[in-house]
Amino acid sequence: MGGAWPSLGRTTVPWHPVAGLLEVSRRSLRATPASFEAAVVPMIAEAGLELSGDLAADLDEATRLLAAFDAGGAGEIAPFASVLLRSESAASSQIENLTSSSRALAEAEIGEGNRANAGLILANVRTMQAALDLAGRLDEAAVLDMHRALMAQQAQHVPGRWRDQQVWLGGSALHPGDADYVPPIASDVPNLMADLVTFMDRDDLPPLALAALSHAQFETIHPFTDGNGRTGRALLHSVLLHTGAIRRVTVPISAGLLAIRDDYFAALTAYRTGEVEPILRCVAEAARNGTRIGERLVGALRAVRDDWSDAVTARAGSASWAVLDLLVRQPVVTARVVTLELGVSAPTAQTALRRLVEDGVLLESTGHRRNRVYRAPAVLRALDDYAEGLGRRIV
């Protein structure tokens, strides 16, 4: 595994304004340079990696914490898997300044509400689920499927296809010359992604190092016109699942990254110069922090569920008790949702929901006699408290 990690090169590329820029003034177009410098990203499928003893120990400790959280104390975490998936997706979106209340997101999941950000975050939930579902076959098609799940409602970004135009980060919208980073030219993307897929299948690297470097290389390639960050963080989870480091639940690693956001972005920049230690340290810290964040969230939700057990007056074994477990993972429901999820009749679902309103577990949101929407304030409050605490290091 010896050898220095390869750094980026540069190539001069003629600049041709894309179609959307032709609407700006002729004067502005004349002022743009005739060329720009794009990254030449090295192949890493067979790259050697040297880890100091201290860094290797850091990665190993973080991996052990991930495995312990995933094991979840004889299955205690497993019932909260969907909540953790949704929370990780929301944190990944928050890194890119996309936020939504827990209520708006839960409403969007059942087709209620019309908040734009909630819809975007829900798309990221689907991306994360696709990343987990596809972990068994980490090939180019799987990565494209993840992006397709994320961008399905944003056709202008051609969901599920490698970009065919130049992109850049920062600087002017007219020209990449002053950008903070100019990814490789579009024609390089397919070969670079094929190389990355080969790298992700290696078994000679520590799992967390493999996931972190795969993520950093993906962000460096920037293979799509939009959605690279969210797809790339989903890919990180795919790699961890692919290696067996996690098996059952989504650890809130993006929540951990959000707490060190500036360091995380700086580490991605350092990676381009061949410095891998910063991104490895960041992901290790995010994994440690993420397990603590996840434990707190699960603890808060478990406390809510325990409180409900004392409040509910329905007989044991009735549908109301089954609805309680559903509410922990889906805190906004309708009678139709309950019918579909629990396999009960519509009258049974309506009776259970009405009983839970009487017991103070649910509030009805619409005030209508038909098509009612019910919410569990205690769960939504726990999720909002969790979201409010993101962005802080936990020690």
From TrEMBL:
InterPro entries: Fido, Fido-like_dom_sf, Fido_containing, WH_DNA-bd_sf. The keyword Iron does not apply. It comes from the Bacteria. Keywords: ATP-binding, Nucleotide-binding. The keyword Nucleotide-binding applies. GO terms for molecular function: ATP binding. Residues 138-285 form the Fido domain. It holds the Pfam family Fic. ATP binds at residues 226-233. The active site is at 222. This is Fic family protein. It comes from Terrabacter aerolatus.
